[in-house]
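User: Fold this; tokens only.

Assistant: Input:
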Amino acid sequence: MKLITLLFASLILENLCAPSFAEMIKNLRTLESYISQYKKEKKSRQGVTELVLTYIREGKYKSNYWKMVAGSAPKDLASYIDKKDKEHGTSTAKCLKYGDILMPSKEKSDFVHLFAVMNGIHHEKSYTRGASALVGWGGDLCQLIQDIKNFKGNLDKLSIEARKFLGIKGQFGEGDLIADLDAPIILKKKSETNTFADIIENYYNKGEYKNRVNDFVKLTFPVINKDSDQNRFRSVVSTRFRGDSYLKMLQMKYSIYDRGYDNHRIAAIYTFADYLFKNYKK
């Protein structure tokens, strides 16, 4: 009983500490203005978009693996932002610590994960090749396989278990799922003359997110169209996942690549493909 009480209390505290959507937008907008000033003052070769993405991503994802697939922020950028916060009494560095944020759509999106996925796609300059899957939906599908790896049974039973996790709990919960879907869409809208703060604010407040699955599929799996049936969705997602060398290496790292996990892999892939098919507007 004591453990349950502590867990419940920690969840309440987490929600109380989570920033509001308005606070996030305010800090992000100010952060982007600071980074724009940084580029002008330092004459950085990196564009403002790249600087914003790498700075926020490194708040959570700093490993050499991430540096390889998404690049690095200048070493003095963090200290520059800290100095600006102190000078102006702002809190933009909080962006590095944001986790799941409740959006106006009543969904939770993992803020830093959103920027990490965009960072990887932007670095690859592709929505469909290279590490673009690894940093987002593909890498999280590997996490979903991990979530169900200890369950036994045939494909049908494993699919039931996978559906209990996708967008609900585990390592591919709602925060990661929403971030994975929204990342390529938001990035596609970005240029050096607009801001992520404005794009994200409009995306949610103007209801653009309601078409996210169609927009995500168009960018990520362009061979899928309105005439595609469920089997087509499954086939396209499966082919992309299985043919990706980055995702093979990640599965090997997680020790889930051998044939003993074939059904777990198929269950995870089909669960994600079925989610897209179910929410795709014909």
